Amino acid sequence: MRDETYVRIKMERNRAILFFSGRWQIDFLDRIEAQLHRLEPKLEGVESIVLDLGGIESIDTGSMVFFISARERLKRGRKLFVRHVPAEFCRMFRLVKRFTHPVALPYVRPYEKVLNLIADIGKSSADMLQDFLLFLNFLGQSTVAAFHMTMHPSTFRFKETATNIYKAGTTALPIIALSIFLVGIVIAFQSAVQLQKYGANIFIVEMIGISIPRELAPLITAIIVAGRSGSSYTAQIGVMKITEEIDAMKTMGFEIFRFVVLPRMIAMMIALPLLIFFADIVGIYGGLLVAKVQLDITPAQFLERLHEEVDVRHYLVGLFKGPFFAFIIAAIGCFRGFQVSGNTESIGRYTTISVVNSIFLVIAMDAIFSVIFTELDI
Fold first, then answer.
1. Is pLDDT above 50 for 100?
2. What pTM value is reported for the model?
């Protein structure tokens, strides 16, 4: 093993020149490091260092990593210059530097996830509040238009209202009949199994006669209408807005709320109670069939007990909910339609929002009615 000099120093005033030479191989790395370490005390106080690499015959990857580390250490607080760099050395330097240069990790603020969550909640709350204020504004304009129409009955749009009653009411009869009929069968079947265990078959009449007209028929009917007609209102008004039909009506002096909103609201508030009454009949009929097949209760016995034991107030409670559910569905459907803007994708988005909002508010209002009527012993 030859005793080779890998690093030597030359001092010039406030400058030091380090001459690197020899074969910088991994096998000689300990001696290279030791030589450089012995020279470092002489570098204290110098303002600049020059690295002269002209004497390096060859260098491998491990030695280059050491050179890069030593270079970073030497240039702390000083000016560092390099001269006489061999081409092979330069190529190796760039290659090793490319894969060993430390990459700074992105700065992560403490509790960033919690802060982002709070920011998202705040943004959502602000959007909901703005949405609520816009909805109140919509209801206010609707109320003013309705009051004006009441004061001037000749402005009532009979033809448009009748058309919307037909679309929201008559055309919905098949799907409502099928849905509530199946619900009546399911409720009756599940009840019959339990009542048979206690020999209380006849009480299925009260169970069907109260649950269907008081809760299930209004709720199922309102949900179907929300998904069918409420979404239709949003899509219709959205298309009118995209095609600038709304703007054209405003330009020509038409009152948008009187021509577009009120006919739909009034039609819905007339059609939904009628649909609920129809659903009461079909749902009870489904229960009557199950009572005949499963419990051997004849239709005459069923209807007689229904007439004697089930109070008419349960039907009136269900019908009472109809106009309120209808108002929610129509108001949200029209309101979301006016929010459509830009493109057809917006129609789909606001139609979905309309259905979700309507169904949620219908269920929430049904829960409120249930609490109120129970407290009032109705």
1. yes
2. 0.69
274/268 Cα distance (integer angstroms): 10
* Angle, alpha carbons 299-305-310 (nearest 5°): 125
pLDDT band at 1 (very low <50, low <70, confident <90, very high): very low
Q: What is the 3-state secondary structure (H, E, C) of the chain?
A: CCCCCCEEEEEECCEEEEEEEEEECHHHHHHHHHHHHHHHHHHCCCCEEEEEEEEEEEECHHHHHHHHHHHHHHCCCCEEEEECCCHHHHHHHHHHHHHHCCCCCCCCCCCHHHHHHHHHHHHHHHHHHHHHHHHHHHHHHHHHHHHHHHHCHHHCCHHHHHHHHHHHCHHHHHHHHHHHHHHHHHHHHHHHHHHHHCCCHHHHHHHHHHHHHHHHHHHHHHHHHHHHHHHHHHHHHHHHHHCCHHHHHHHCCCCHHHHHHHHHHHHHHHHHHHHHHHHHHHHHHHHHHHHHHHHCCCHHHHHHHHHHHCCCHHHHHHHHHHHHHHHHHHHHHHHHHHHCCCCHHHHHHHHHHHHHHHHHHHHHHHHHHHHHHHHCCC
Q: What is the arithmetic mean of pLDDT over 268-290?
A: 93
58: left (phi over 0), alpha (psi -120 to 50) or beta: beta
| Residues 335-340, mean pLDDT to the nearest whole number | 91
- The band of 365, judged by pLDDT with boundaries at 50, 70 and 90, is very high
CA distance 244 to 242: 5
CA proximity to 225, closest of 285, 262, 263, 170:
170
Q: What backbone torsions phi and psi does residue 56 show, to the nearest 5 degrees?
A: -75, 120
Determine contact, residues 180/222, Cβ cutoff 8 Å. Answer: no
Q: What is the pLDDT of residues 174-198, one digit of tens each?
A: 999 999 999 999 998 888 888 888 8
Distance in angstroms (rounded) separating the CA atoms of residues 360 and 356: 6
Q: Does the structure show a pLDDT above 90 at 368?
A: yes
pLDDT of residue 92: 84
pLDDT by residue (tens digit) across 127-146?
999 999 999 999 999 999 99
**Cα–Cα nearest to 307, from 284, 286, 275:** 284
Distance CA 70, CA 26 (A): 15
